[in-house]
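Case study 2.
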Amino acid sequence: MNVSNTGRCGVDCRGLKGRAHRPHPDSRAQVARALRVAVLVVAAAGAVQRASATGHEKALLDKRVTQHSVADTICRTGYADAVSPSLDLTMEYKNRLLAARGIDPDKGAGYALDRRIPVVLGGSPDALDNFDLLPWAGHAGERRKELLATRLKRCVCAGRMSLADAQAAIFGNWTKQYARVARMSCDADALDTQAAGSDRDGS
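Prediction:
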C-alpha cells in the first residue's frame, strides 16, 4: 500500500480531496443562525446604550419646556435670561469646574461655562450636571455651539424641527450636526435673530 496516499485513512485518501473542506448544508445553516444572533445582540446593546443616553439627557432638561409649551417658554423673547441663575452663581459653577479640571484661574477667560443642553433648547438652567467647560474658540468651541443652538431654536420655533430632535442634535456629536443644520432655512427674520442672540446662555 502506498503510504503517501493512505496516511492515517487506511484507504486511498485521494478521493477525499476537495470534499473535506466543503461545508455541510447543516453547517451553513448554523453559521447563518449564529450571524443572525450576533446581529440581534449588537442591536440590543445599541438600544440599551441609547436608552441610557436618553435617561441621562432627561436629567438635564427643564421640565417647563415641552413640545407643547415652546411658544410660551423658549420661543418667548428673554426666556433664557429670566430663568437662568445669577451671574455670581454661574461664575461660582465655572470656578468649580476650572478647579476640577486643573485649569489655572488666570486662564479661565479662555473658557466658557457651557450647558450640555442650552437653556434656549429646553436645557435645565441650573442642574449642575448640565454644566460643562468649553473653549470659546475653535471648531468645537462655545461660539460655534451657540450659533448652532440659536439656529436649532429658530427651527423649533418655526415648526421645522421638533424640540426632541433639536435636543438630540445638540446633546450628541453637535460638531457633526453643524453643517447639516446650517443649511436649513427656518424663515427667521432679523428681529428673531437678534432675540435669539440675546438669549445665549454661558459665561
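The helical segments are 3-6, 25-58, 79-83, 87-100, 142-157, 163-171, 174-182, 190-198.
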